[in-house]
Amino acid sequence: MAGKKTAAVWLLIIAIAVLGISIGRLSVSSVSAAAGEGYEELKTFTEVMSMVKKHYVEEVKAKDLIYGAIRGMLSSLDPHSSFMPPDAYKDMQVETRGEFGGLGIQVGIKDKGLTVIAPIDDTPAARAGIKAGDKIVKINKESTKDMSMQDAVSKMRGAPKTSVTISIMREGWEEPKDFTLIRDIIKMKSVKAKMLEGNIGYVKVTQFQEQTAADLAAALKKLNEEKFSAIILDLRNNPGGLLNSSIDVSGQFLPRGKLVVYTKTRGGEKAEFLTEGEKPYAQPMIVLVNQGSASASEIVAGALKDWNRAVILGTQTFGKGSVQTVIPLSDGAGIRLTTAKYYTPKGTSIQNTGITPDIILKLESKNGAKEHPVLREKDLARHLKNEQSDVKPEEAETAPMEVDEKDDIQLQRALDILKTWNVFKALPKAS
């Protein structure tokens, strides 16, 4: 991966299993040199496969056995390496456009269970009342125990207007409850903008898609026409998306040619990604982040922090700092393999630690409202370590299920800081 133009690297939003992964493309031939390695071990594999084909109580297809072996091999590595059968591989290519058939649930694996990270606004899952922290224990009456996240995604995805029943276990419930949801076209509106008091522009980016940078540019242009004096960029609960989009978003606030992020492989090969925009916005800026800000969100926040372009406010981010390379296979399937790690412009690894805000401020529940357990990269099974720091175990965290804007103390603090910023800026200079 020699750089942005020679390495097609993305961060992908999976339809309903989203933690923002980076993707680069390699051909099968580029990895064929390693095909002979482990040949003796392959002999054992073929012996077992032959025994199963010959003696298993029921007839099984060779392809099913091989796919199962590949799936098990990759799932034993880390939370983000996985196997994609042909249908899933095609879905992955479609999903980068930000439109797909599904339920609108972001999920991850915690304590060996399929866990809802967050429902996506205005989707079947959100309308049905699915909450962050819910455990999905069954999909169409099939237990999710030991089910891979990719399999779970495949089972919950599907054609619009078709139904799927998921069994949910929630803290405080004595037994799971069934939710029958009608799949819909999930159109991810990745940019929302409005003007707040004091001519402070507010932009929320929910994920990084193909159109996100262009939509952000249009939103900023409109705010500029309304003469915004400062800006709040809200990346909270943004699970990631296309890497190129995150670079282009950063380029709307950083000068041309600035390093946004670089990747480094096991062998030390380094690829740098630089801004290419013109005339970036220079208004005072605060970026809001939380435990749900992952991958591409962490890249943007890390770059703006390292270049002293913005104040980062909120809570520690998710810590998804690894690169997944998608390798297409000859039969139309593909594998997603972790091949590198991300580093901020100052060389800080994001993996397993995330971005530490300049101002740490946690949201608090109001009037005894329920909270959900916080899920971060370090909580995922088989997560990669951070070679720069030893992440110590912490007490279990919780966060509010939902917060009204009037109770959003992170947003209110950002507004107060920017208002004060403008007050001091307007003070006459001493003569």
Key descriptive features of the protein:
six-stranded mixed β-sheet, globular, 9 helices, Pdz3 Domain, 23 strands, 2-enoyl-CoA Hydratase, Chain A, domain 1, 24% helix, disordered N terminus, seven-stranded mixed β-sheet, single chain, 431 residues, alpha+beta
CATH superfamily of the domain at 188-322 and 343-374 and 385-426: 2-enoyl-CoA Hydratase, Chain A, domain 1
Poorly predicted sequence stretches spanning 5 or more consecutive residues: 1-33
Cα separation of the termini: 55 Å
Largest sheet: 7 strands, mixed
Q: Name the CATH architecture of the domain at 188-322 and 343-374 and 385-426.
A: Alpha-Beta Complex
User: In total, how many beta strands?
Assistant: 23
> What name is given to the CATH topology of the domain at 188-322 and 343-374 and 385-426?
2-enoyl-CoA Hydratase, Chain A, domain 1
> Mean pLDDT, as a whole number?
85
The outline comes out as globular
Question: How much beta, percentage-wise?
Answer: 25-35%
Helix content: 10-25%
CATH class of the domain at 188-322 and 343-374 and 385-426: Alpha Beta
Query: How big is the Rg?
Result: 23 Å
Structural class: alpha+beta
Instruction: Please count the helical segments.
Output: 9
Explain the overall architecture.
The protein is an alpha+beta fold. Among the domains are: 100-186, Pdz3 Domain (Roll), CATH 2.30.42; 188-322 and 343-374 and 385-426, 2-enoyl-CoA Hydratase, Chain A, domain 1 (Alpha-Beta Complex), CATH 3.90.226. It is 24% helix and 27% strand. It has 9 helices and 23 strands. The strands form 6 sheets. Strands 1, 2, 3, 15, 16, 19 and 20 form a 7-stranded mixed β-sheet that branches. A 6-stranded mixed β-sheet has the order 12-13-14-17-18-21, with helices on both faces. Strands 8-7-9-10 form a 4-stranded antiparallel β-sheet. A hairpin with a 2-residue loop joins strand 7 (135-139) and strand 8 (142-143). Helix 6 (212-225) packs parallel to helix 7 (243-250) and helix 7 (243-250) packs parallel to helix 8 (296-306). It starts with 8 loop residues before the first strand and ends in a 5-residue tail after the last helix. The model is unreliable at 1-33 (pLDDT under 50).
